[in-house]
Structure formats: C-alpha cells, structure tokens
C-alpha cells in the first residue's frame, strides 16, 4: 500500500492539510481558555499553529534525550539501524513491530533485543502486535524494554486482552556511563556521521532525580519531602520464554478465539478419532476455554461481551468453569467403522468428558456400504472392490480407505451445519453453524499422507504447521498441565488410521509403516527441503553426514529418493490444504509459505538406467 522512503538521513518539509492546521489552532485555543480559567494567565506570544511538518528519516532531539526508531524486521537484518543510531548518540530506540509467532522464535527475538543494547548501550523499546490478523498468522506480543543488554520489563506472549501496556523506569545517565566505558565504542562513535535531527520541545524525564535510599523521611533542601519519593530504575529481570508445549497450547488457542468471535460462528466441530492429531486439536480448544474463563474472571469487558454473544449467555449469565463453556462451544464426533477399535472410541469419549465437550459417537458403516454398493451396481455389474487383506489390489485397497475418509468429511460438515439447531443452542449473533477444525499435522501434509478432501479438509486447522514430534510432546504436557489425563494414553498409542480391516496374525495398520518413513525423519526432511533449501543431492549429503555409521550410503540414498518421490507425487494436495495456524518454518502450505510448483515429474529422482558400454575398439576408418 506504500513505497518505502529511500532517502536515508534526509528530511523534507510538507504542507499540512488545512483541516489539521485548524484542529491544532482549536486545541491551542482550548488550552489557552483552560489556562485563563485556572488563573494562570494567557501567553500573548503564543506562536500560531505550524503550516508545515518535517517528513523523512530523522531522529527526535528532545530537551533531555534523543529518540529514534527502527521498524519491525530491521531488528533481524545484518545492517540493523540501531547500531548506527546508538553510535550517533541516540539513547532511546523504539521498534513498533508486527512479528508473527513461530515455534521457538521468541528466544531469538529477545537475544537480538538484548544484543542490540549490549553492543552499543541504550534503551530499546519493543512493542509488538498481538492477535490474529484474519489469516494464518498470529502475532504474539511480548512487548519489552531492554537497557544496556539487560531485560528490565517483558509483557505476555499470549493473551486475550486487546491492549497490554508494559512500563519501566530507566536512568539515561546509565546509558551514557555504559557507552563511555567502552573504548572501541567511543572510537567508532567519533567517526559516525550525525543523523538528521528534528527538534521537539518536550522533556522525557521527570524533574525528580533518583537519590540514595535513606533510612527515615527523605530530605530535600533541608525540608522533609512531602512529595512521593522519586522513581528508581527498574532492575533487570530474567526473560520468560515458554516451553514449546506451552506455545502449542496457547498460541493456536488465542488464534481460534480471535477467529471464532470474528467469524460469527457458534463454536467448533472436531471429527475426533481418539488419535494424537484430533485429540491435540480438541485439547487446544479446551485450552482456549480455560483462557476465556480466566479473562472473564478477571473482568475483561471485551471477552465478557464476546463470550455472551458467541456462546449465547444471557445478560446476567457468564461461564463459571472451562468445561461449562466447552459444552457450548466444542462439539466432537467419533465416526467409527468396522475397522475402528474399541480403544480409540473410548479415548475419544474420555477426552470429551474431561474437556466438557459435547460428544457424539456414530457408526458410518451403512453410509460406506451405500456408496460402495452404488459403485458396484453402476460400474462393475455387481463386482465389489476388496481390501488387500481380502485379496484386493492396491487400487481397490486405497479406494476403500479413501471413501471412509471422505465420507467423514461430508458428515462433519453436515453436523457442523445442523448440530446447533438440533441442540437448540442460542447464539446472539444469529449463527446456526459450527467451524469444522482440521487435524492434519505438517509432516503428513509434507509427505502427502492424507486423503484429498477427507477430514483434513475443514474450515481452519490449528495444528497444520506443527510436527508430529512436537504434538506428542504437547500431549504429554497437556495431560498434566491442562488436566486432560487421557492424553497420556493417546500419546502412548501407536499412530494408526484404522481404515483397513484387522486380520488375525497380521500387524495392524500403522502410519509410519504405511508412509515408509518415521515422523522424525519427515521432520528432518521438511527442514532440509524448506529451511536449508536442499534438493535431493544436498539432502543426501546432509543426511549422510548425520547418519554416518548408522546406515549405508545406499540406504540413505533410498530414503531421500523415496521422500522426494512421495513429495512430488502428492504435491498437488498442498493446493487445497485447509488454512492452518502458521507455527513451523517448513510448512508446505503453498498459498503463502511454499510457492513451488505443484506438478513435478515424479521420476526426477529415479536413477537413470545404465547405458550400454562403449566399445574399446578403435574407430573404423573409411
């Protein structure tokens, strides 16, 4: 929406619009009238409102300090402006940022902020947006203040408050002292060109100066002080960095609440299989309900207004417990077949009970049978496809698995539209529908280990950019810290899609066996492919260095080729991935983070066929 200012260190003068000049004149007149009414007299020499304003790249020289700013990503750049500004004598540097949440990113951000002032001294004021921007990103706040390499104030990373104010008292004399104590800094500062300056008639510091703490009343000029004691500099604190499991719990939870209250929906529907992924999604919604109830108890007026509107509470009603709110906002449905196990069905029921969610348990065998019967009657003259375990081909086996998965998606959206009506839920916004939540993790999306238009197709997906490894750690953490103890059983169970029939004496269907690679390997391949920008050859070299002595070069080559073969074959699925909360740097979501083509030659990593050996005979002469 705008072009950047290209003239570093230059300031121009621009004429202010008449409406701005008039407003400034009115404000000055009101101030003069207030002063006269208070008996302070009127300044007859008051200058008129300015007609022009400076515009450009400059620092603000106040009466007692110099203030400047760098913007957002400049903090992360090699030639960050804060170094030059500090060497030019700027004491206070502010950064109004729009930095989105990414797993394990806060450490890097805080290190850069502290490092900025550790090198060259100064005060760094960092403010960041917090909340959902209406897309896949969530901005995670954590405003802070750093002085001379130490953090002195830090705001929360996640929360439902619209605004959070972080304050600290700093001593600018400490900045001067710190800079003067470093000889190399003084030498570099002496050769730094002075920046463009805009003078501002304003005092940043108060009149009171810090004094030594005394026992008894504070004396000033021989008199007992009647004013409050002067402020002292805020002392350094230890940075607070959440565990990755806490980030997974509360980042997507805040994103879901922002999305829900803005969308006009009446809640969420989760197709809950009792496995790790869908259970993680349900647990995150449970964490959201805990945050909302905590904000209600704290008296947050915006959250109170939103929860009454979204959850249908009356003017005198409010949720008292997270489980009560979950019963209104979260509906879960277990859609089992003859291939489903009693264990997953029971885990799904127990999890809903612990969260407080509304729970349905259905058998969809009759729907699957109807579709397969329709195909057999219309196409094959009654010949029915069979699972591989019953003598069917690979094509038949996959088709029978996929029809189960796709029917679950159809039923999920049907339930999302009609459950509020069926339950008689009241939504003040007039919405009679639920948002369907997807539960495909980033590794399965990368590998393409999902059915196109199955339950991975939803309205939004809170875990679509989180690895399976991190999700399993989250489940263990949430079992204790969110109070959903059954999640420990979910994490301990081997991942399985339960789409094929169990055959006595044979191993049940397992995800990692089906994929031909482990989730840990997939996470590694994802980071190498996207973050390290590795193709097949570079990925082989990296894996060979890590797995040296564990696997033969041939085995490593086979693994890399298999990954790229499946990635190429299934890349088209990324074009229809459900919009997901962005948390991992190797997300395959091609709508924003991965703009590679979606049509590959799947044979591009297949080794070439050996060519016929050339004859060693000398060439024939004519």
Automatic annotation (TrEMBL):
Alphabetized UniProt keyword annotations: ATP-binding, Ligase, NAD, Nucleotide-binding
Residues in coiled coil: none
CDD domains to which the protein is assigned, alphabetical: NAD_synthase
Pathway participation: Cofactor biosynthesis; NAD(+) biosynthesis; NAD(+) from deamido-NAD(+) (L-Gln route): step 1/1
Biological process (GO), any one: NAD+ biosynthetic process
EC number: 6.3.5.1
Gene Ontology molecular function, alphabetical: ATP binding; glutaminase activity; NAD+ synthase (glutamine-hydrolyzing) activity
PROSITE patterns associated with the record: CN_HYDROLASE
Domain named CN hydrolase: residues: 1-172
Alphabetized SUPFAM superfamilies for the sequence: Adenine nucleotide alpha hydrolases-like (SSF52402), Carbon-nitrogen hydrolase (SSF56317)
GO cellular component: cytoplasm
TM helices/strands, residue ranges: none
Gene3D superfamilies linked: Carbon-nitrogen hydrolase (3.60.110.10), HUPs (3.40.50.620)
Similarity remark: In the C-terminal section; belongs to the NAD synthetase family.
Entry protein name: NAD(+) synthase (glutamine-hydrolyzing)
Organism expressing this protein natively: Volvox africanus
């Amino acid at each position: 929406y705008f072009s950047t200012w290209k003239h570093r260190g230059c300031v121009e003068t621009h004429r202010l619009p008449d409406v701005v000049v008039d407003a400034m004149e009115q404000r000055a007149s009101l101030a003069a009238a207030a002063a006269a009414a208070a008996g302070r007299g009127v300044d007859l020499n008051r200058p008129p409102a300015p007609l022009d304003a400076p515009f450009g790249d400059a620092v603000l020289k106040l009466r007692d300090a110099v203030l400047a700013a760098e913007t957002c990503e400049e903090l992360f750049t090699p030639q960050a402006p804060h170094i030059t500004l500090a060497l030019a004598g700027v004491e206070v540097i502010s950064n109004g940022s729009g930095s989105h949440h990414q797993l394990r990113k806060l450490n890097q951000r805080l290190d850069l902020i502290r490092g900025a002032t550790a090198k060259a001294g100064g005060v760094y004021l960092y403010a960041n947006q917090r909340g959902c921007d209406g897309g896949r990103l969530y901005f995670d706040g954590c405003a802070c203040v750093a002085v001379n390499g130490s953090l002195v104030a830090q705001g929360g990373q996640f929360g439902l408050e619209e605004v959070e104010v972080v304050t600290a008292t700093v001593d600018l004399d400490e900045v001067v002292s710190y800079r003067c104590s470093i000889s190399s800094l003084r030498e570099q500062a002496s050769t730094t060109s002075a920046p463009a300056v805009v003078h501002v008639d304003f005092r940043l510091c108060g009149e009171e100066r810090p004094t030594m703490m005394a026992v008894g009343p504070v004396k000033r000029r021989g008199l007992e002080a009647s004013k409050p004691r002067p402020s002292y500099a805020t002392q350094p604190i230890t940075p607070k960095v959440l565990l990755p499991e806490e980030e997974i719990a509360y980042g997507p939870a805040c994103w879901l609440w922002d999305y829900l209250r803005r969308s006009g929906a009446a809640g969420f529907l989760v197709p809950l299989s009792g496995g790790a992924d869908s259970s993680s999604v349900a647990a995150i919604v449970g964490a959201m309900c805990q945050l909302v109830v905590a904000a209600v108890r704290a008296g947050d007026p915006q959250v109170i207004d939103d929860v009454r509107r979204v959850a249908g509470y009356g003017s005198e009603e409010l949720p008292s417990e997270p489980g009560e709110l979950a019963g209104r906002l979260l509906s879960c449905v277990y859609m089992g077949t003859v291939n489903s196990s009693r264990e997953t069905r029971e885990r799904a029921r127990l999890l809903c009970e612990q969260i407080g969610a509304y729970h349905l348990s259905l058998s969809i065998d009759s729907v699957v049978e109807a579709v397969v019967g329709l195909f057999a009657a219309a196409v094959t003259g009654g010949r029915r496809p069979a699972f591989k375990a019953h003598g069917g081909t690979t094509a038949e086996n996959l088709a029978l698995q996929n029809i189960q998965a796709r029917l679950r998606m159809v039923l999920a959206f049907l339930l999302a539209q009609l459950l509020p009506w069926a339950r008689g839920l009241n939504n003040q916004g007039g919405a009679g529908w639920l948002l369907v939540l997807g539960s495909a993790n980033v590794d399965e999306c990368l590998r393409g280990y999902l059915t196109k238009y199955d339950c991975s197709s939803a309205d939004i997906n809170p875990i679509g950019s989180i690895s399976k490894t991190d999700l399993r750690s989250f489940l263990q953490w949430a079992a204790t810290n969110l109070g959903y103890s059954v999640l420990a059983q979910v994490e301990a169970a081997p991942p399985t899609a339960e789409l094929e029939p169990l055959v006595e004496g044979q191993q049940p269907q397992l995800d990692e066996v089906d994929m031909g690679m482990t989730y840990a390997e997939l996470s590694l391949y994802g980071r190498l492919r996207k973050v390290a920008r590795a193709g097949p050859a570079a990925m082989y070299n990296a894996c060979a260095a890590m797995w040296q002595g564990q696997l033969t070069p041939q085995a490593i080559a086979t693994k890399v080729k298999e990954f790229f073969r499946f990635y190429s074959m299934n890349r088209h699925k990324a074009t229809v991935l459900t919009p997901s909360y962005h948390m991992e740097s190797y997300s395959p979501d091609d709508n924003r983070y991965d703009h590679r083509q979606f049509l590959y030659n799947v044979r591009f990593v297949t080794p070439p066929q050996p060519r016929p050996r050339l004859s060693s005979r000398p060439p024939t002469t004519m």
